[in-house]
Amino acid sequence: MQKVVRYQCDACGELFYAEEECAKHEEKHKRIEKANQMLKKGCTLKEIQGECQIWYKLPEYLENVTQDVGFIISHWQCCKKPAYHILGITFEGHLLVRGCGSWSGYFGNEVPVTSDILKDPRFEEPIYIDPRYHPY
Question: Where are the alpha helices (DSSP H) in the chain?
Answer without folding.
Answer: 19-40, 45-52, 74-77
